[in-house]
Amino acid sequence: MIPREILKKIRQIEIRTNRLVTESLAGQYHSVFKGQGMNFDEVREYQPGDDVRSIDWNVTARFNHPFIKKFVEERELTLLLVVDVSGSGRFGSLAQSKRELAAEVASVLAFSAIRNNDKVGLLLFSDVVEKFIPPRKGRKHVLRVIREVLYFQPQRRGTDVRQALEFAAHMVAHRAILVLISDFLVPPDQTTAPTAQESSGLSRSVQTALRQANRRHDLVAVQITDRHELELPALGRLVLEDAETGDLVELNTGEAVNRDAFALRRQGQLRQVARTLRSFGIDSVQLTTDQPYATELGRFFETREKRRLRG
């Protein structure tokens, strides 16, 4: 039996995100995530302006005037939401944690998918694969996906993007839409000394996994951050705990030089992640817990559709 307060929270997210899907994003989703081919639909008479390459010569010869083959897009797709549930996702300095924002984004994409008759699956990961829900259709299934993103209790606190992407590749045999939702606070490779790039971005093993996943699937990265992960408030001397490792560090936030150094380092990491994703041809969108996500998602869809039309 699901507690009433959990059902209420899920219902609130459903209402909020469904409105957004109905008003704008479902159509944009359909436009930017295309099917993998065309299926034969029917034969009809040729009309001026039709592509002569579509003429069905057998039917044309039989009726002694031209007919063309009509095709429709092979629409049904699979959307797999790959969601980071490591310890850092619990952080939220305002009304919403990163995990809660991840649930809303997952909800928007999932409802957009089932509105277009696509399947939706879920993979939750920390530094291990915590849970996998195979792709299915239907509102009830999507509500389960939302509940798991919000309330699943992971066994581990770390982050391993590489393992999650490799698992996803094995579980989804055909080409799919993979949406990786994470703060990308990932540790460097432990087996080798970090390069200059790794010290401010993604480890080599994660980069390799991203390239391979994008080669096989349509990979989209959603990077979620909180304002106070980018800049510290002036609160004097603080003891900060790493949510994933448990490591403690003491920092005097009352000194501007310490706050500035923290902000430069953290913002540099985020820029490096964005540059790395862009260099691999992976579309990405950056969201923060203190800003409305609908605008950024809409802008992401618009940019992707314009690029597709140019191509």
How does this structure look, described?
The chain has helices spanning 4-32, 57-63, 98-115, 139-151, 161-171, 196-199, 204-216, 227-230, 256-279, 293-310, and strands at residues 38-45, 67-73, 78-84, 119-125, 129-136, 177-182, 218-225, 237-241, 248-252, 283-288. The protein has 311 residues and is α/β, with parallel strands linked by helices. The protein folds into 2 domains: 4-32 and 75-225 and 286-310, von Willebrand factor, type A domain (Rossmann fold); 38-73, no CATH class. The strands form 3 sheets. It has a 6-stranded mixed sheet, with helices on both faces. It has a two-stranded antiparallel sheet with strand order 1-2. Helix 3 packs antiparallel against helix 4 and helix 5 (161-171) packs parallel to helix 7 (204-216).
Short description:
It is built from ten helices and ten strands. By secondary structure, the protein is of the alpha/beta class.
User: Which fold name is given in CATH as the topology of the largest domain?
Assistant: Rossmann fold
Strand proportion:
15-25%
In the CATH hierarchy, the architecture of the largest domain is 3-Layer(aba) Sandwich
The CATH H-level homologous superfamily of the largest domain:
von Willebrand factor, type A domain
The major sheet is characterized as: 6 strands, mixed
Number of helices: 10
Q: Which structural category fits the helices and strands?
A: alpha/beta
Low-confidence stretches: 190-200
Give the mean pLDDT.
85
Q: Say how many strands there are.
A: 10
CATH class of the largest domain: Alpha Beta
How many domains make up the 3D coordinates?
2
End-to-end gap: 50 Å
Major sheet: arrangement of strands: 5-4-3-6-7-10
- Give helix % range: 40-55%
Note the overall shape: elongated
The Cα radius of gyration reads: 23 Å
Order of helices and strands: HEHEEHEEHHEHHEHEEHEH
